[in-house]
Amino acid sequence: MFVKEAYLHSDVVRAPAQGLARGRAIDAEFATALADELSGAYRLAGYMLADAAEAQDAVQEASVRAWRAWSRLREKDKFHSWFNQILVNVCRSRLRRQSRRRTTDIEEVDIEGADPFRASLARDAIGRALSALSTELRMVVVLRYWGDLSLAEIADRLGIPIGTVKSRHHAALQTLRRRIEPAAGSSR
Amino acid sequence: MSDSDFDSDIETEERLRRFAASTRTPALPEETAALPWKVQTETPETGPFWFRLSLAGLSGRAGRALAGGARLAVTLAVAGGLLFVVSNTRTSGSGAALIEPPTTPRPTLQPGARGGPEVVVLPTHGVVDGVMASYVAGGVKQAESDGAAAVIIQLDTLGGASDAMESIVQSLHATIPTIVWVGPSGAKAASAGTFITLSANLAYMAPSTNIGAASPVASSGQDIASVYGQTEADKVMKDAIASIRSIAQERHPQAVAWAVSTVQNADSYTAQEALDAHAINGIAASLDEVLKAADGQEVTINGAQVVVHTSGATIKTIDEDFIQTILHDLDDPNVAFILLVIGVLCVAVEFFHPTLLAGLIGAFCLALAFYGSGSLPLNILGVVLVVLGIVMLILEPAVPSHGLLTVGGIVSFVIGAVAFYGSPGPYLPAASVAWPIIGVMAAAAAAYGLVIVRTLLALRNRPVPEGVGLVGSQDEVVGMEGVVERDLDPSGTVYVARESWSAILEGGGSAPRGTKVRVIRKEGLTLIVEPAK
Predict the structure, then answer these.
(1) CA-based angle B16:A59:B56, to the nearest 5?
(2) The model's pTM
């Protein structure tokens, strides 16, 4: 199940055990660029995955992927959106795996002692409703409202047509509204 | 979309926006933030090859499949390249490449330019193929430039490829008298061998030798028909008949009907019968007798009548060189079969345990097998059955079928091996794989499937030993002891199995750096630990 993460993890963590730097200068440009992204990435990953540990792993995985692909990134000034894309991909595959593994409604989750993201979401009905969205819809919503991205940017990050983003966005809003106002009923 | 829908969408949007803005993001834990560039000190992979490898490592199954595909492509490319090289060698072997510039014709012979007359002997054996063609061509050329009184091709063959045969027939139209001797006793000049024998200026056969079709029972016409279809069979047969007719015509008008019967009816004749039909010039039990018999005979070379002087000539034997011998031996029906089986098995190893080495060896074997079988009446159906059998045997461990695949694989393999060579046409030799070899190779393939593939599969699924990468892929860290690296409060990191892990102390509380802990369980990549006693 965790082969991929373990691979990354061990790759990353084995190095210090082996005595760290092998005389290689660290790419300062990459380090600087990545440092600016981390907290934003953590926020996005956290609210997408609603799990701090998962989000940390996701950020880490995305960072390692970015580092491996760094030399192939031609336009370094596009680092932000490029890194975002990687992160979104990582989160997407993690979300899919999660949904395959367990289908827990946020209401059923023990909020006491839960992680900060889940706790934060649980404060408001709309946050709880968010957890019930499908992977696709949820990603659009988080990118839109937590990532402050335009629909066009979301289309770019997810690698899907903007029309699809629009319809997913709309569907997400509808679903959220139905869940937070069950008594009001739907206008259909 | 109705207005109310739209309004409530905006309302929901606004609410989401406000909510999102109100949510806080906890600080990213230091170790996560610090990891990528403090620790990952290896150079990012740049080259396409390493990129592919890293891809294989990174993206799991799909990446492995991709890398596997790439390897297979490389293997096939190498096999194709080898095949290309080998087949080119073969083409060049059938004629000009190995020979010096053509020597000027010598209409009159100068027997004994240096002492007594010299006769060059070229002993041949086995299948008529490109190697034999280049050997004969080279030998005849050398005999010509040496000023030999004649060149004798000692023949013992069951037949072979028609292009090689034609090339030899060409070589026999030399500037010196050419003699074919089918010998020693027990030798055969079958199929393509018949054409070669009749093409020489003089032809002799040893007692108890045969000439004619390779398979006296079956009608070769029907046999090709079963492989190529009737039209093609008719065409091949007509060509062969026309060819043997013109060759026989040059020898003796009475030999024509006889020669045609060897092709048309797949008849086989003894030396005496051939002599009676005026197809050969005489019967000679040894090379010395050939020299005696040929002496004083009149032959036509380049339209001129030439008298052969071979009596008391010294015999100079030119043997195949080392490479020719090896390549020639590949045409052995058994060798070609064994090479094919080994090749398929090696390529299969490459599938299960990619090392490139096995794939290359397999590709090499396959190339050699197909080179070798070029002069043999390979039966595609037989080859397919053999390969299918091997595939079934290999799949047995991977797809449990309670032995059905093994039984089916062996049956398919044996049937394929028996039918590996089809029936010969007018030129190709009758060939078959020897039973003991079928048995041994079937056993080898079955053992391969049962033992090697199973072992390789087990190897692949084996738990990775501690400390050798990929530790997290197994749960074997559970139960191990480690040391707290960053204070557990209750979460922190511990050092277990030569790796750092995020860890949580079971039941809360805290543990300072250096505390010994034991792993109770693993949740994702986080270890749940308790103080070790």
Answers:
(1) 130
(2) 0.48
Residue of B nearest to A62 (CA): B36
Q: How far is CA B292 from CA A35, B208, B246, B283, B296, in A?
A: 99, 20, 28, 11, 9
Which residues of A fall within a CB distance of 8 Å from B26?
A: 42, 46, 52, 116-117
Q: Does the CA dihedral A32-A38-A44-A49 come out positive or negative?
A: positive
Distance from CA of B78 to the nearest CA of A (A): 30
Closest-CA distance of chain A to residue B322, Å: 52
H runs (alpha helix) in B41-149:
48-58, 60-93, 130-146
| Closest alpha carbon to B182 in B201, B221, B209, B159 | B209
Query: Which residues contact residue A84 at a Cβ distance below 8 angstroms, ignoring those fewer than 6 apart?
Result: A37, A41, A44, A147, A157
**Interchain proximity B525–A53, CB inside 8 Å:** yes
Whole-number pLDDT of residue B95:
38
Min Cα separation A187/chain B (Å): 7
Give B233's pLDDT tier (boundaries 50, 70, 90). low
Q: For residue B85, what pLDDT is reported?
A: 65
Which of B5, B28, B38, B502 would you mutate first to test chain A, the one with the most A CBs within 10 A? Answer: B28
Confidence of residue B34 (pLDDT cuts 50, 70, 90): low
pLDDT at B185 over 80: yes
Token pair recorded at residue B244: 């043997």
CA nearest A64 in B: which residue? Answer: B36
> What is each CA distance from A117 to A51, B18, B19, B224, B361, in whole angstroms?
6, 16, 13, 77, 56
For residue A98, is pLDDT > 60?
yes
Q: What is the pLDDT of residue B217?
A: 35
Q: Which residues pair with B283 in a beta bridge?
A: B205
CB pair distance less than 8 Å for B41 and A116: no
Which chain A residues have a beta carbon less than 8 Å from that of B471?
A: 6, 10
Within 8 A of A180 by CB-CB distance, chain B residues are 12, 15
pLDDT score recorded for residue B471: 42
**Percent of chain B clearing pLDDT 90 (strictly above):** 2
